[in-house]
């Protein structure tokens, strides 16, 4: 089935890393940004790096939301609400949104090892509140760092996928398995994103203490697929 995967904030480290991994796996990617020219430049760089018939283009965030079948939210948490309010009237019905954002205090000038309190409970639950009816949501990829995504080797990380919508959960899980070394795990309802997001702050602290950039999460004792 042909589909377009749009990445809001795709010029940033997390967004461009996901774009790189998925384009390498054969997916059609559209990088979104406030600045369409910057998105086009990032897309061109990734096409050059991947080579061959890599399908990556760049455009503005509004076009991504209105035209893509799956849209991945990778903008800093501090800018999420404003962007989602801007896009509320342009979403294509049936779109699946995947929220990767984490309310780290670093997004507002604080410590990266601390979380911002979100009254909805999590970044993902805030996103759900700001999406129109007919657009489904999954939360995933919060614990997979941008530096790992930017490399060529396999990652060593489980991807917890939380959603109240089974189709959104299925699509996010499928995209997780397209990243070599990653395993998708059913994280349950969307409200569990509160726990998953907080693990990111823990991983940031572990990376700092051990002077690495590759700390990830693995769950033991599960079937190989994690399903």
Describe it.
The protein has 227 residues and is of the alpha/beta class. The protein has a single domain (4-210), classed as NAD(P)-binding Rossmann-like Domain (Rossmann fold), CATH 3.40.50. It is 38% helix and 17% strand. It is built from 8 helices and 8 strands. Strands 3-2-1-4-5-6 form a 6-stranded parallel β-sheet, with helices on both faces. It has a two-stranded parallel sheet with strand order 7-8. Helix 1 crosses helix 2 and helix 4 packs parallel to helix 5. The protein is globular. The protein starts with a strand and ends in a 17-residue tail after the last helix.
Q: Please name the CATH architecture.
A: 3-Layer(aba) Sandwich
CATH H level: which superfamily? NAD(P)-binding Rossmann-like Domain
Strand % is 15-25%
Question: Distance between the terminal alpha carbons, to the nearest Å?
Answer: 22 Å
The amount of helix comes to 25-40%
Helical stretch count?
8
Outline the biggest β-sheet. Answer: 6 strands, parallel
Q: Which blocks of ≥5 consecutive residues have pLDDT under 50?
A: none
Report strand order across the widest sheet: 3-2-1-4-5-6
CATH class: Alpha Beta
- What is the H/E string? EHEHEHEHEHEHEHEH
How many beta strands in the DSSP annotation?
A: 8
Please state the structural category.
alpha/beta
The Cα radius of gyration reads 16 Å
| Inertia-based shape | globular
CATH topology: Rossmann fold
């Amino acid at each position: 089935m042909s589909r377009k995967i749009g990445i809001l904030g795709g010029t940033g480290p997390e967004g461009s890393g996901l774009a790189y991994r998925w384009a390498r796996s054969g997916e059609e990617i559209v990088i979104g940004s406030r600045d369409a020219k910057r998105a086009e430049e990032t897309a061109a760089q990734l096409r050059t790096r991947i080579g061959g018939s890599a399908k990556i283009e760049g455009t503005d965030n509004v076009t991504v939301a209105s035209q893509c079948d799956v849209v991945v939210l990778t903008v800093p948490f501090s800018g999420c609400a404003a962007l989602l309010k801007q896009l509320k009237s342009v979403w294509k019905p049936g779109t699946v949104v995947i929220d990767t954002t984490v309310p780290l205090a670093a997004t507002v000038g604080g410590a990266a090892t601390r979380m911002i309190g979100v009254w909805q409970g999590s970044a993902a639950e805030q996103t759900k509140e700001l999406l129109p009816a007919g657009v489904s949501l999954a939360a995933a990829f919060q614990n997979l760092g941008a530096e790992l995504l930017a490399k060529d080797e396999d990652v060593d990380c489980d991807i917890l996928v939380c959603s109240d919508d089974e189709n959104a959960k299925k699509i996010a899980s499928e995209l997780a398995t397209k990243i070599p070394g990653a395993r998708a795990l059913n994280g349950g309802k969307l409200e569990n994103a509160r726990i998953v997001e907080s693990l990111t702050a823990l991983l940031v602290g572990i990376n700092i203490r051990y002077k690495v950039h590759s700390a990830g999460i693995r769950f033991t004792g599960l079937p190989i697929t994690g399903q």
